[in-house]
């Protein structure tokens, strides 16, 4: 079953179960997929759908920071539930340990010596962890190792 079909099945189930948060989250993802398909006149593959979901997850993480600053715990809780739902459609996320191993291997591969080489390292690491790790987390780990 493709990711698109799974989203449709889960949307139907959430409507039957009256799970509003799940229904709204899946609807948001499906709308983003549809918008991309219409804009580019293509049928998206699972890999491209994962990119869209990853992007939305990143936006939710940024929104949580703003909600915390605004002291809106209700919105923080809602956004965290939405993030949990989005994570169900992404491949298993890498742990920091796994990311550190990938980064260390890549640093050896590209022969990075200092912080000046961070761009080269990030460019090599990101395709390896695509959809399975957040870019900010990877960047933080690269900086820790390179300093």
What would you say about this model in short?
With 147 residues, the protein is mainly alpha-helical. The protein has helices at residues 3-16, 20-40, 46-69, 73-87, 96-110, 118-129, 135-146. The longest helix has 24 residues, at 46-69.
Describe it.
The protein has 147 residues and is an all-alpha fold. The chain has 2 domains: 3-87, Uncharacterised protein YqeY/AIM41, N-terminal domain (Hypothetical Protein Yqey, Chain: A, domain1); 96-146, Arc Repressor Mutant, subunit A (Orthogonal Bundle). It is 77% helix and 0% strand. The protein is built from 7 helices and no strands. The protein has helices spanning 3-16, 20-40, 46-69, 73-87, 96-110, 118-129, 135-146. Helix 2 crosses helix 4 (73-87), helix 3 runs antiparallel to helix 4 (73-87) and helix 6 crosses helix 7 (135-146). The chain is globular and about 55 Å long. The model has no long low-confidence stretch (mean pLDDT 91).
């Amino acid at each position: 079953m493709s990711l698109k079909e799974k989203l449709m099945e889960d949307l139907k189930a959430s409507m039957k179960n009256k799970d509003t948060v799940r229904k709204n989250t899946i609807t948001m993802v499906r709308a983003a997929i549809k918008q991309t398909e219409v804009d580019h006149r293509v049928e998206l593959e699972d890999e491209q759908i994962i990119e869209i979901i990853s992007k939305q997850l990143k936006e939710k993480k940024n929104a949580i920071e703003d909600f915390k600053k605004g002291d809106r715990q209700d919105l923080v809780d809602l956004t965290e539930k939405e993030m949990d739902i989005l994570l169900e459609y992404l491949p298993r996320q890498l742990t920091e340990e796994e990311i550190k191993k990938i980064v260390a291997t890549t640093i050896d591969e590209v022969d990075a010596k200092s912080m000046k080489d961070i761009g080269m390292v990030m460019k090599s690491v990101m395709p390896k962890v695509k959809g399975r790790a957040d870019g900010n987390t990877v960047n933080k780990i690269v900086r820790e190792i390179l300093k």
